[in-house]
User: Which sequence fits this backbone?
C-alpha cells in the first residue's frame, strides 16, 4: 500500500517505520523543516526509534520523509497522528483540521483516512468527516473509507510496543472497518474492532481517565497518610498482595506526558459542552493532580524549616526532568512545575537528568555527583531514572524528599 502518516513524533514515526517494515511504502509527512531534515539524514529524535533503524528504512526506499503536501498524493491510506494539545484548558484540534485540509484535495476514490490523535468522542464524525468531504467532493463511507484507531504508544516501554499492544480499530461503516482492520493487521499482532467511531474514541480517553483518577486517589491517600503518620508505601505493598480486585497505583509529584494531563480534560470538556453536565470524578482528579507540584514544594519547605533553613536561598538538587523513567519526554512533566515553583520561591536549583535533550528550558547536568549531593541543602527525587544510584544519594545527601519512593529509608530520607 501507499501509506502517508501525518505527523512524525512519538506516535507517527514509530507507526511509519512499522508500516514500512511490514512491506508498505510510507511517506512520513512532517511540517517542521528541522525535523524533516533530521529524518532525511537518518537521525532519529524519538528515543524508541534508533537512528540505525531509521537509516535502514530510508535506504530501502520504503520510508520517505517530506514536508511537501503533494508528497501525499496517491495514498491508499493516510493516518493522522498530529498533536491535540490543550489551549486555555480547552481541546485544540487545529492540527487535526490542518491535516484534514491537507488530505482533502488529494483524496481519491477508494482511499482510506484514519485518525489516531487522541480526542473526544465525535471528532472523527463531526470534525474530520465534513472537512474531508468538503475539500474532496467525495462522500465518506461511499467514495472513501474513514475511521479511528487510538494510539497506545508508551514511550520507553520495551515490553509493550506498537506491534504487540492490541490495536483498537473503528470505521464509519462495516466496509470502512474491514479496510482499516486489514491494514493494521499487516502491521500489528492483534486488532480489536470497536462497534463504532465514538466507542473507540471514548475507549481511548477513558483508559487514561481511569489512570488519572486512581493516581489522584493515591496522591490524596499519601497526603492523609503523612498527616496521620502512617507509612502509605507499606500499606500499598500490603494491599498489592491481594490477587484480585486491586490494582496498585503509586503516589508521585503529579502526572505528565501527552495523555494523562490532557485526555481526561478532553472527556470532561466534551461532556460539559454536549450535555451541560460535569464529570465530577475527572474534574476532582484534575484538581488534585495539578496541585501535587505545589504540595511537593510545600513539603520540601516544611522539611527545611525543621532544619532551621529557609527555602529562599537554599541549594536544591532536583533529580529528573522527564515525566517518566528511562525517557527524555518532558511533555507536561510535573518535574518542570516543581522546579519552576522552587525557583519562584528563591531556591537555587541544580537539575540532573541523564536523558534530557537540548531546549528543555533549564540547564541540566547528565550525571550525579557525590560532592554536589553533599553540598546541597536538600535533594528532591522527581523522576526515578534507573541511572540514579539510590545508595549514592542516601549516602551523601543531607536530606532527601523522594517523590518516587526509590531511595532506601533513613532518618534523613522522607518519602512522599
Assistant:
Amino acid at each position: 500500500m501507499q501509506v502517508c502518516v501525518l505527523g512524525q513524533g512519538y506516535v507517527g514515526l514509530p507507526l511509519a517505520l512499522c508500516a514500512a517494515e511490514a512491506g508498505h511504502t510510507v511517506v512520513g509527512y512532517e511540517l517542521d523543516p528541522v525535523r524533516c531534515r533530521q529524518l532525511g539524514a537518518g537521525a532519529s529524535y524519538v528515543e524508541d526509534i534508533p537512528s540505525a533503524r531509521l537509516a535502514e528504512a530510508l535506504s530501502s526506499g520504503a520510508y520517505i520523509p517530506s514536508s511537501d503536501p503533494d508528497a501525499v498524493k496517491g495514498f491508499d491510506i493516510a493516518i493522522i497522528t498530529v498533536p491535540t494539545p490543550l489551549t486555555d484548558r480547552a481541546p485544540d484540534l487545529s492540527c487535526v483540521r490542518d491535516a484534514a485540509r491537507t488530505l482533502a484535495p488529494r483524496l481519491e476514490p477508494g482511499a482510506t483516512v484514519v485518525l489516531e490523535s487522541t480526542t473526544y468522542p465525535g471528532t472523527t464524525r463531526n470534525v474530520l468527516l465534513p472537512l474531508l468531504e468538503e475539500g474532496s467532493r467525495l462522500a465518506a463511507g461511499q467514495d472513501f473509507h474513514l475511521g479511528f484507531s487510538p494510539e497506545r504508544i508508551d514511550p520507553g516501554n520495551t515490553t509493550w510496543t506498537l506491534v504487540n499492544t492490541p490495536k483498537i480499530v473503528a470505521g464509519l461503516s462495516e466496509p470502512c472497518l474491514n479496510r482499516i482492520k486489514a491494514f493494521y493487521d499487516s502491521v500489528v499482532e492483534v486488532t480489536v474492532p470497536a462497534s463504532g467511531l465514538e466507542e473507540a474514541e471514548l475507549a481511548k480517553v477513558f483508559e487514561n481517565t481511569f489512570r488519572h483518577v486512581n493516581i489522584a486517589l493515591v496522591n490524596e491517600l499519601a497526603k492523609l497518610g503523612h498527616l496521620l503518620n502512617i507509612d502509605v508505601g507499606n500499606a500499598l505493598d500490603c494491599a498489592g498482595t491481594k490477587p484480585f480486585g486491586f490494582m496498585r497505583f503509586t503516589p508521585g509529584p503529579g502526572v505528565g506526558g501527552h495523555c494523562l494531563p490532557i485526555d481526561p480534560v478532553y472527556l470532561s470538556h466534551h461532556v460539559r459542552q454536549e450535555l451541560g453536565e460535569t464529570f465530577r470524578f475527572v474534574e476532582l482528579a484534575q484538581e488534585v493532580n495539578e496541585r501535587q507540584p505545589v504540595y511537593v514544594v510545600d513539603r520540601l519547605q516544611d522539611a527545611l524549616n525543621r532544619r532551621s533553613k529557609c527555602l529562599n536561598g537554599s541549594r536544591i538538587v532536583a533529580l529528573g526532568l522527564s515525566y517518566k523513567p528511562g525517557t527524555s519526554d518532558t511533555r507536561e512533566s510535573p518535574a518542570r512545575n516543581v522546579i519552576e515553583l522552587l525557583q519562584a520561591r528563591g531556591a537555587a536549583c541544580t537539575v540532573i537528568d541523564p536523558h534530557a535533550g537540548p531546549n528543555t528550558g533549564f540547564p541540566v547536568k547528565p550525571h550525579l555527583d557525590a560532592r554536589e549531593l553533599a553540598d546541597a541543602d536538600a535533594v528532591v527525587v522527581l523522576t526515578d531514572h534507573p541511572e540514579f544510584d539510590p545508595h549514592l544519594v542516601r549516602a551523601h545527601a543531607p536530606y532527601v524528599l523522594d517523590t518516587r519512593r526509590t531511595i532506601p529509608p533513613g532518618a534523613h530520607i522522607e518519602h512522599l
